[in-house]
Design a protein that fits this description.
The complex is a heterodimer of chains A (about 170) and B (about 100).
Chain A (H helix, E strand, L loop, with lengths): L1 H21 L3 H21 L3 H26 L9 H31 L11 H8 L4 H34 L1
Chain B lengths: L3 H21 L3 H26 L3 H31 L13
Classes of the chains: A mainly alpha (about 170), B mainly alpha (about 100).
């Protein structure tokens, strides 16, 4: 039963991430990433990492990608510019480098798996177990992330303030 | 039989797709979306290693990665909106000046 679910969700994940990169319309890029994140969280549930899977679904698909969608709709990006020759050459180069990267990945993993065959452990990442570790061993990093979010808020506010002041300058001049 | 290698290969494929996206797309928004793919690929291998090693640390790191990604996306999208206001485009080629 488990292999069937793994392969189906892995296929959906790969197809959706291809759509993220290849689709022309930015709206479809974002919606494809929502599908990719959904299948990713299904894979996490298959690995019995329930808490992380749900957080991924709620925070990523629920908040971050809706934020993306909001910005895409605000910006009104309907025009598709055609790629020039230089851009097309660059695209070809990027694809070749990516394929080389993928093949080296596969070779590395193959040798790794031949070296050691690990058995899946019985740990279950429920809210209880993850919460216990998060608030004991990982308390300091957890509190530091609040500082990180605070710095992000400062950054956004200062960016927005700069935009407001330049807007006033444009109006004055 | 699903082994650790299956998950790691999947992670490698997703990472490569995201890398191609980051290197080839001109649209800044698309670059940011491909960066999310890179983070997702690393999350897959973290959770797989956590499961197969019997250690919760991998799942906690994924939790922190999600937090950092949320902050990164908020800043990145703010910069994209500002860029669109000033240049009326979000093509990376148009960013030619070092200082506005």
């Amino acid at each position: 039963m488990s292999p069937f679910f793994f392969y189906s969700f892995a296929t959906i994940l790969i197809l959706a991430s291809l759509a993220v990169v290849l689709a022309r319309n930015p709206l479809y890029n974002v919606l494809a990433l929502v599908v990719a994140i959904f299948s990713l969280s299904c894979l996490f549930v298959l690995l019995e990492a329930f808490f992380v899977g749900m957080i991924l679904l709620l925070v990523y698909a629920g908040a971050v990608l809706v934020f993306f969608l909001f910005v895409v709709m605000c910006l009104n990006l309907n025009t598709v510019s055609l790629a020039s020759d230089a851009q097309r050459r660059f695209r070809w180069l990027g694809t070749v480098v990516g394929l080389m990267f993928a093949s080296s990945f596969c070779l590395a993993f193959k040798s790794f798996i031949k070296a050691q065959t690990m058995e899946a452990s019985t740990i279950r990442g429920t809210i209880e177990t993850i919460g216990k570790i998060l608030f004991t061993d990982y308390l300091l990093p957890f509190e530091l992330t609040s500082l990180l979010l605070l710095i992000a808020i400062f950054g956004i506010v200062s960016l927005a303030q700069g935009a407001l002041s330049t807007g006033k300058n444009v109006e004055n001049s | 039989m699903i082994t650790l290698g299956s998950y790691l290969t999947l992670s490698g494929i997703i990472f490569s797709i995201g890398l191609v996206g980051v290197m080839t797309s001109r649209n800044v928004l698309k670059v940011l979306l491909s960066l999310e793919l890179l983070l997702a690929a690393s999350n897959v291998s973290f959770v797989a290693f956590s499961k197969f090693n019997g250690d919760y640390a991998g799942q906690l790191i994924v939790f922190f990665v999600i937090l950092v990604a949320a902050a990164e996306v908020a800043i990145g999208l703010a910069i994209i909106v500002l860029m669109y206001r000033r240049l009326s485009t979000i093509q990376a080629d148009e960013l030619r000046t070092m200082k506005w």
